[in-house]
Amino acid sequence: MANVADKPLVHEDDLLIEEYGYDDHFHDHHHGDKFQSNFVTTYFFSQDHKMIAKQFLITGMFWAIIGGLMSLVFRLQLGFPEENMAWLKPVLGKWITVNDAGIGSLAPEFYYALVTMHGTILVFFVLTAGLSGTFSNLLIPLQIGARDMASPFMNMLSYWFFFLAGVVMFFSLFLNTGPFAGGWTAYPPLSALPQASSGSGAGMTLWIVSLVFFVVSVLLGGINYITTVLNMRTKGMSMWRMPLTIWAFFITAIIGLLSFPVLVSAFLLVTFDRSLGTSFFLSEIFIGGQALDHVGGSPILYQHLFWFLGHPEVYIIILPAMGIVSEVLSVHSRKPIFGYKAMVYSILAIAFLSFIVWAHHMFMSGVNPFISNFFVIFTLIIAVPSAVKVFNWIATLYGGNVRFNSASLFAIGFVSMFISGGLTGIFLGNSAIDIQLHDTYFVVAHFHIVMGVAAFFGMFAGIYNWFPKMYGRFMNETLGKLHFWGTIVGAYAVFWPMHYLGMAGVPRRYYRFDSFAAFGSFDLMNQFITVAAIITFGFQLLFVVNFFYSIWKGKKMTDRNPWKASTLEWTTPIEGIHGNWPGKIPTVQRWAYDYGKDGKDFIPQIQPVGADESKDEH
User: Fold this and answer.
1) Residues with Cβ < 8 Å from 259, sequence gap 6 or more?
2) What membrane topology term does the record carry (predicted)?
3) Domain count, the chain
4) How far is CA 279 from CA 63, 193, 197, 221, in A?
């Protein structure tokens, strides 16, 4: 096929857009893709949503590697506490102490710093910014028929605040006193007293500064996403014709806008306690036998503020993955998404319920048992819309002509992970059972599978599916399938045994277990988990190689719609241009999931509805 960017009217889609499209006179003012010609404004300070999406993705990948390497170091400590770690001294410096016999060991305080940084980086910098920032930026304008975001400048700022947050966090890793080591939740008093531990000083200060910059990034992006979806949909694109990806990104942005400012308020009060001598979260504290002048505060107040963000944050991470998986499963099973409106209502229900379940993280903190019952009920109720989504994904796959490529395999893997990880949440949501399981490896296993690995699977499905749209080339399918099978087997090998550790009462965040006779029998299991983690990380490096190799050397895209999808992003030219469409913006004539209808494999959203055509499925 000829390059459609050069000959904009040789493709059937172009003829439809020319006939029915909406002319916004964009090119009278901006001269098309010549609008951005400066190297710096094109690749660094870009205001094009497609380039900003790539910036979020590659920055997120960098942080994923850093966070993954941290987990390998502390897994080595847990699996092989007696082994010589002197070989890590050139990398970790003084945090590896070497005795007279030349045996090196990891400093306990740095172990806690690694656990803290791993959690912070993966939750915020990778699974929030890397997932939502990438795909909200890439897909919202393309799938709703907009030239760009409502405010391209604000969009650029959202990335650079994220980048600035990363720079500050990265510098904190090299402080002489070490990065913050009080857990990614930053509970007082470790976070509120600079003298509490070595990492509670400058490391904690930079941690707070970094995350405040990060929240600014989230708010700038969220305002943009919401405004763009509400105000910039193309002609014919009603809310009920939007793909489920857009619904997911839209609701995710609203959740972030409502919950992240509460986290900043908690950080502000922590800073007051640290610097101004206030006692919002501190009371009757003794250090070295000396009483401090902090009276009247409560660390439980901090927990309420943190988890008011912390639980919606789970859905800020998982909802974009859910939207991506819905789209990928429908496209690659060649079937309309099952229960479109039910899927939308379930997203809305999850968003609402996510704000009234936060105290299920606090059953062991002395919360009134009557109040706990309220949170138990709503925690169990939130499983209902999640189950609706799982049922609809399975129903979409059932009877479909499924293409088992990398994108669809990761989408199916997401469903598997979400089911197995979600089922264990039923146990933790019960306040009576949580007394036994709280702060054990059962909790680690649950949230890593359902929020960590499942969200990564959704991200991978999206990358493999929309990589041609981002770079005009395909990723290698053989390497992609190898990446999938290595990751799904490895992830279950890492996290499934942790359930048994947790049921046996093995606590999380402990530096080593060989001092406890009760936990000595789990040495082999910890070694197995550590080896599985190392192998699984190796498969992620395979993905990184495939990704960057394919940007320059991957198979070139010759058809603008290689997956035969019905949504608008596949009507744009192969060579991405500023403004997305070279002429008119396409007009939407139908919903986003007309697959296998009236004897046709798929019908694009821009195809007018025929007089003899059957009604929309939803």
Assistant:
1) 308, 309, 312, 313, 316, 355
2) Multi-pass membrane protein
3) 1
4) 35, 11, 19, 34
The predicted-structure confidence for 535-567, as pLDDT tens digits, reads as follows: 999 999 999 999 999 999 999 999 999 999 999
Per-residue pLDDT band at 10 (split at 50, 70, 90) = low
Q: Provide, for the chain, the percentages of residues in helix, strand and coil under a 3-state DSSP scheme, each rounded to the nearest 5.
A: 65, 5, 30
Distance between CA 609 and CA 590 in Å, rounded?
Answer: 7
What residues are paired with 286 via a beta bridge? 291
pLDDT at residue 27, rounded to an integer: 58
Backbone angles phi, psi at 171, to 5 degrees: -60, -35
**Do the domain assignments include residue 614?**
no
- Pairing mode, if any, of strands 595-597 and 286-287? unpaired
Q: Mean pLDDT score of the chain, rounded to an integer?
A: 92
> What does the pLDDT read at residue 1?
40
Over residues 572-586, the mean pLDDT reads 89
Residue 186 lies in a domain: yes
Cis peptide before 189 (omega within 30 of 0): yes
Helix (H) or strand (E) run with residue 492 in it: helix 477-503
Bigger pLDDT: 343 vs 4: 343
Residue 7 lies in a domain: no
Give the DSSP letter string of 5-74: TTSTTSSHHHHHHHHH-B---HHHHH-GGGS---HHHHHTS---HHHHHHHHHHHHHHHHHHHHHHHHHH
How many angstroms separate the CA atoms of 243 and 567, rounded?
Answer: 8
- Render pLDDT for 56-81 as a digit per residue (tens, 0 to 9): 999 999 999 999 999 999 999 999 99
**Model's pTM, two decimal places?**
0.94
Report the C-alpha gap between 397 and 338 in whole angstroms: 9
Residues spanned by the domain of 228: 46-283+293-599
> What are the angstrom distances between the C-alpha of 424 and each of 49, 286, 378, 410, 461?
38, 38, 16, 21, 24
**3-state SS class at 574:** coil
CATH number of residue 301's parent domain: 1.20.210.10
pLDDT at residue 28, as a whole number: 54
Please check whether residue 11 lies inside any domain of the structure: no
